[in-house]
Design brief:
single chain, alpha+beta, Rossmann fold, Calcium-transporting ATPase, cytoplasmic domain N, 4 domains, 9-stranded antiparallel sheet, 7-stranded parallel sheet, 37 helices, 26 strands, about 45% helix, disordered C terminus, translocase, magnesium, nucleotide-binding, P_typ_ATPase
């Protein structure tokens, strides 16, 4: 260090003549660092802050048209136009808006707590993450997350390397190798950094995950995790909002459910009704006012038209009518209902025990949307499958090895009616011997090459090279098990064990065929040609103990076969045949090949490759790929590996239930078409008897054009070919109305199908199919474009489910995004309960609750209109100010909220047993205009009955000893009592599942009204108790009998899906197969996917066959 200052340049891609960002390493408190004023390391995902909560939350509340209307009404209530006091108008608005803001605050507080839990771990020198500043040196230990973006200074390895897991950033599970600068890698003790000083000059914060450039003047990375390295030391370079992960973060889109959007339309309808009746009232009021002084007589003498204000002045009728219209709009504001998840979070049936993770609803605004999903778009790897690869088969020198049976093979055998092959673990230990402990990722069984028997095979030399390549060509590192002290990842039964790795060497133990002993072999690691989604392969250049230079490669078949030498294709045809068989078995394959390099050839390559890696130009990555491509040629084929990515538990059953519910399922995967098709069969997405429409660009004509290399010609011909295939597919759909179709399309074809002039015809084909599988789809194409097409093209509710990393675009684009957290691939089965149970409940509860809210407000508001008409449209309110204020707050709202939270038309068991229930939400039968208007008309009818019954009973009735008739206050109190009873009893009739809370809320609301009446001093003035009870009972019975009769007739003769199931449950026939089948046959969407569809198809085939035989016999 004493040799003066050195400037070191490190990584990668942009070229700058100067760097604007400076980090003073280990001196974050120096004057220059303070002047830079970089952001803190505190990261917040909350929607609000203390300063912004009030204005932003108020803005959110007053985006709703109803709340704006009530705000205007509250302001006008301070003027003489108001028929009630200002306090009675303002208090309910404050209560409801305040309650909604409290709900928003609670949800945001939970997000804040999650931020705190994510910002409080990984301490070094007793400081929390949020306290880190640019320039601090931090120590990160194994399996801990990086607290900020760091420049690696050193690690527990002598050569300063570490392995980083970036799954939460880019969805990739493979570890990334990082290496410190030679000048700092020797500092491996805490004390080494006590006097460490350096200045890092680098690029400004940006979103590029894989590039970084800067310089370090030296004397003498958050949401990625350190793996397989005990600890590292790093200098903080970006903090908080400047980190790569936050630069890549996008604000979640504002999503509103269809129910909420439709509510706005209903509010507009009610506003139009309000303006209409206000206008009608003002016209009649104007006519009556104009006649008040006609003929020198005062008709409405009590208004003193000869000496009055402008509001009742017969000489200024036009102005009086306008003012009356404003008064009426305030009076009839009760037509508009004022606005007002935990069960998903607390459902133990959606708890994943292994990861200790329950389901978590991040927002309560979209819960009802869960009951209206029409299409599910799913990632495959890590969502339908476990993303845990197991080595199960291989092809070496044209010979297939591996006795294991995959889940897809078992499904294939079941489809074909063949005897089911035994599970490999069952057959292996059928003699009663204890099985060997399972090794993660290794499920290979074949006595021909296990236990060292491969030395007796005819091509043992190729087998040796094959497994040697597997042991050397990778970026894994050995990991010791803490209990046994053995390496966790190994396949020693094959005779090859990778046991040590450094930055420059790889060591393995392998079986020597000549001596039969295990010998140690070391390989000098010269270059790693890394895997990426463009190259689809990885290679290493190593020098063995004899000094030979070897290029070892593995990759996808479509890029590896074209790189084989003419003399290296000895096993090509046999290997291709095996690959096809492996794809049919649902396995993922890699081709293995190698070649020896001449010293001169390697030196030329190494010079070119080193120059490309050290380049800081914008095309650095292209230069590196070009250098690698030049040497990855003329390879000699060794064979292929096949690994199984197993389906999650419960996936076929879940897909079957969703299909019965009428939900369409799209799967997007990067697998080969054959693999995707067979995975589709294994998970019940496809079945025998379905007609498959396959759109692919693997035709001989397109391949011939690709060989010619004219990109323009290839593009035009490919697009025309795709359009032709789509057109033919639509023709097949139109010809058959009974057959089930599945659409399978590859990635190249999908690119053309999503172009603007093609996407509509592609969508019309896709929506006519029972299931859609998009194969070989690249991550750049998958996240949002397909989802957006389905969402905007169909107008139906879409749900996307993925691992939450590379699928985040798809999740944000869909109406509902379901992210899998923690372990990939263990939660898809919960989709069944989330949609069919909670989705159905939420949709039905909210739809009924909203209809009820409009009903009860129209019932109340229309009594005001009738009373005003009864009083010659004078603008006089029928009720006391506080009666009107508390109507929506205390006397009618709690029962509706209880219904919206607790009601269940059928139990969870029956929701799952009869998925047809879910179609109520998909078809929107509970919130269509006919039902909404029906509830509104019910409210109008109830208001008419209440008003005229009360008016007829009380108008000429003498209530006092002196013979006086009732006053307006008493009449209003009696009519109000009847309204409270009617709307709460209507709620009781609408509830399917009574709980103690609902009983308390319904009957408690009525009791609260009587307590309020007593406290207000009107209880004694409303007349004889018996008379009031009889009148109330008569009004309630008269108003509810029509609804009760309608509901009974509908349940008995025209039941909806939930009504049929309630009837079956009541009759005790829910377990009768015949009755259950009758219910399922009422489905508007025929079940075409899943094992239920397969059974029904076989049953239908037998029925048709039997019918044919019967006809033949009859003839």
């Amino acid at each position: 260090m004493g040799g003066g200052r050195r400037r070191i340049r490190f990584s990668k891609i942009y070229t700058f003549s100067w760097y604007s960002r400076r980090a003073f390493v280990n001196e974050p408190d120096c004057l220059e660092a303070r002047n830079l004023a970089y952001v803190s390391n505190y990261v917040s995902t909350t929607k609000y802050t203390v300063a912004t909560f009030l204005p932003k939350s108020l803005f959110e509340q007053f985006r709703r048209v109803a709340n704006i209307y009530f705000l205007i009404s509250a302001c006008l209530s301070f003027t003489p136009l108001a028929p009630y006091t200002a306090v009675s108008a303002v208090v309910p608005l404050i209560v409801v808006i305040g309650a909604t803001m409290v709900k928003e605050a609670v949800e945001d507080w939970r997000r804040f707590q999650q931020d705190q839990s994510a910002s409080g771990g990984g301490e070094f020198d007793s400081t929390d993450w949020k306290n880190l500043r640019v320039g601090d040196i931090v120590k990160v230990e194994k399996d801990h997350f990086f607290p900020a973006d760091l420049v690696l200074l050193s690690s527990s390895y002598e050569d300063g390397i570490c392995y980083v897991e970036t799954m939460n950033l880019d969805g990739e599970t493979n570890l990334k190798l990082k290496q410190a600068l030679d000048s700092t890698s020797s500092s491996q003790e805490d004390s080494s950094f006590r006097d460490f000083r350096a200045v890092i000059k680098c690029e400004d914060p940006n979103a590029n995950l894989y590039t970084f450039i800067g310089t370090m003047d030296y004397q003498g990375q958050q949401d990625s995790k350190l793996r397989n390295t005990e600890h590292i030391f790093g200098a903080v370079i970006f903090t908080g909002q400047d980190t790569k992960v936050m630069q890549n973060a996008t604000d979640p889109p504002s999503k509103r459910s269809k129910v909420e959007r439709k509510m706005d339309k209903i509010i507009y309808l009610l506003l139009c009704m309000l303006f209409l009746i206000a206008a009608i009232g003002s016209v009649f009021f104007g006519i009556a006012t104009d006649e008040d002084l006609s003929g020198g007589k005062m008709k409405r003498w009590y208004l003193r038209p000869d000496d009055t204000e402008i509001y009742f002045d017969p000489k200024r009728v036009a102005a009086a009518s306008i003012f009356h219209a404003l008064t009426a709009m305030l009076l009839f504001s009760y037509f508009i209902p004022i606005s007002s998840t935990m069960f998903i979070n607390q459902d133990v049936a959606m708890y994943y025990e292994e990861a200790d993770k329950p389901a978590h609803a991040r927002t309560s605004n979209l819960n009802e949307e869960l009951g209206q999903v029409d299409t599910v778009l799913s990632d495959k790897t890590g969502t339908l499958t476990c993303n845990s690869m197991e080595f199960i088969k291989c092809s070496i020198a044209g010979i297939a090895y591996g006795r294991g049976v995959t889940e897809v093979e078992r499904a294939l055998a079941k489809r074909k009616g063949s005897p089911l092959p035994p599970r490999s673990e069952d057959s292996e230990w059928s003699d009663g011997a204890a099985p060997a402990p399972a090794v993660k990722g290794f499920n290979f069984k074949d006595e021909r090459i296990m236990g060292g028997n491969w030395v007796n095979e005819p091509r043992s030399d190729a087998i040796q090279r094959f497994f040697r390549l597997l042991a050397v060509c990778h970026t894994a590192i050995p990991e010791l098990d803490e209990d046994s002290g053995k390496i966790s990842y190994e396949a020693e039964e094959l005779g090859f064990e990778f046991y040590q790795r450094t930055q420059t060497s790889i060591s393995i133990n392998e079986l020597d065929p000549s001596s039969g002993r295990i010998v140690q072999r070391g390989y000098k690691l010269l270059n790693i040609l890394e895997f990426n989604s463009t190259r689809k392969r990885m290679s290493v250049v190593v020098r063995d103990a004899e000094g030979k230079l070897l290029l070892l490669s593995k990759g996808a078949d479509n890029v590896m076969f074209e790189r084989l030498a003419k003399g290296g294709r000895e096993f090509e045809e046999a290997t291709k045949e095996h690959i096809k068989e492996y794809a049919d078995a649902g396995l993922r394959t890699l081709i293995l090949a190698y070649r020896e390099l001449a010293e001169e050839e390697y030196q030329a390559f190494n010079k070119l490759f080193t120059e490309a890696k050290n380049s800081i130009s914008a095309d650095r990555a292209d230069k590196v790929d070009e250098a690698a491509d030049k040497i990855e040629q003329n390879l000699i084929l060794l064979g292929a590996t096949a690994v199984e990515d197993k389906l999650q538990n419960g996936v076929p059953e879940c897909i079957d239930k969703l299909a019965q519910a009428g939900i369409k399922i799209w799967v997007l995967t990067g697998d080969k078409m054959e693999t995707a098709i067979n995975i589709g069969f294994a998970c019940s997405l496809l079945r025998e008897g379905m007609k498959k429409i396959i759109i692919t660009l693997d035709s001989p004509e397109i391949k011939a054009l690709e060989k010619e290399g004219n990109k323009s010609t290839i593009s035009k011909a490919s697009k025309a070919n795709v359009v032709q295939q789509i057109t033919e597919g639509k023709s097949s759909l139109s010809k058959s109305k009974t057959d089930a179709f599945a659409l399978i399309i590859d990635g190249k074809s999908l690119a053309y199908a999503l172009e603007d002039d093609v996407k509509n015809i592609f969508l019309s084909l896709a929506v006519g199919c029972a299931s859609v599988i998009c194969c070989r789809s690249s991550p750049s194409r998958r996240p949002w474009s397909v989802t957006r097409l389905v969402k905007t093209g169909t107008g139906n509710t879409t749900l996307a489910i993925g691992d939450g990393a590379n699928d985040v675009g798809m999740l944000q684009e869909a109406d509902i995004g379901i992210g899998i957290s923690g372990f990939e691939g263990m939660q898809f089965r919960f989709l069944e309960r989330l949609l069919l149970v909670h989705g159905h409940w939420c949709y039905r509860r909210l739809s009924t609750m909203i209809c009820y809210f409009f009903y009860k407000n129209i019932t109340f508001g229309f009594t005001l209109f009738l009373f005003e008409a009864y009083t010659s449209f004078s603008g006089q309110a029928a009720y006391n100010d506080w009666f009107m204020s508390f109507y929506n707050v205390f006397f009618t709202s709690l029962p509706a909220i209880a219904l919206g939270v607790f009601d269940q038309d059928v139990s969870a068991r029956y929701c799952l047993k009869f998925p047809i229930l879910y179609q109520e939400g998909v078809q929107n039968v509970l919130f269509r205009w006919r039902r909404i208007i029906g509830w509104m008309l019910n409210g109008v009818c109830n208001a008419v009955v209440v008003f005229f019954f009360c008016a007829a009973a009380l108008e000429h009735q003498a209530f006092r000893k002196g013979g006086e008739v009732i006053s307006r206050d008493i009449f209003g109190a009696v009519m109000y009592t009847c309204v409270v009873w009617v709307v709460n009893c209507q709620m009781a009739l609408s509830i399917s599942y009574f709980t103690l809370i609902q009983h308390v809320f319904v009957w408690g609301s009525i009791a609260t009204w009587y307590l309020f009446l007593l406290a207000y001093g009107l209880r004694r003035g409303v007349g004889p108790r018996a008379f009031l009870l009889v009148l109330t009972l008569l009004v309630v019975v008269a108003t509810l009998i029509p609804y009760f009769a309608y509901a009974a007739i509908r349940m008995r003769f025209f039941p909806m899906y939930h009504g049929m199931i309630q009837w079956l449950r009541h009759e005790g026939q829910c377990d009768d197969p015949e009755y259950c089948q009758m219910v399922r046959q009422r489905s508007l969407r025929v079940t075409t996917v899943g094992y239920t569809a397969r059974i029904e198809a076989k049953s239908g085939h037998r029925h048709r066959k039997h019918k044919v035989h019967s006809n033949l016999y009859a003839s």
